[in-house]
Recover the amino acids of this structure.
């Protein structure tokens, strides 16, 4: 499936759901999964996830960028499992740098309300050595999603 043909109803559903399981590949080829929060941009068919530089998922995607983002619906029977390839931003090193600003965009897209103190947020992101993991959708499988009529 080309990302240009991602049905609008599926893209819209993905943009409305933030609880996902990110599945990466370990060195031996076995899967490693992490529950994370993500935001999805229908215009670019891309997920964005805040990660830390020293975690297994980050090491895994540096070695092999193929992942699955399994998006959880509101009930057990609704989901969308999206395959894609990862690109990583630089690690944020200066409060308010480009990566820090993108991390704040990701946070604000997922959270119910914008972060109340961006300066505090930027400092925390530098201290945690955070970066943005981006997944461009290449294919998907879904069940229980509403369809446009």
């Amino acid at each position: 499936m080309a990302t240009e043909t991602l049905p609008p109803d599926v893209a819209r559903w993905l943009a409305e759901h933030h609880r996902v399981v990110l599945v990466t590949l370990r060195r031996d080829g076995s899967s490693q999964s992490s529950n994370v929060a993500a935001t999805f941009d229908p215009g670019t068919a891309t997920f964005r996830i805040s990660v830390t530089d020293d975690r297994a998922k980050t090491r895994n995607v540096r070695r092999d960028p193929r992942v699955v983002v399994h998006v959880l619906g509101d009930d057990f029977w609704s989901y969308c499992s999206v395959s894609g390839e990862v690109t990583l931003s630089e690690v944020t090193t200066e409060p308010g740098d480009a990566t820090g600003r993108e991390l704040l965009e990701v946070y604000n897209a997922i959270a119910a309300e914008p972060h109340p103190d961006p300066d505090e947020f930027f400092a925390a992101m530098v201290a945690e050595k955070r970066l943005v993991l981006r997944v461009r959708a290449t294919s998907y499988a879904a069940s229980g999603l509403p369809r446009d009529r």
In short: DSSP finds four helices and seven strands in the chain. The CA atoms of residues 24 and 30 lie 9 Å apart. The mean pLDDT is 94.
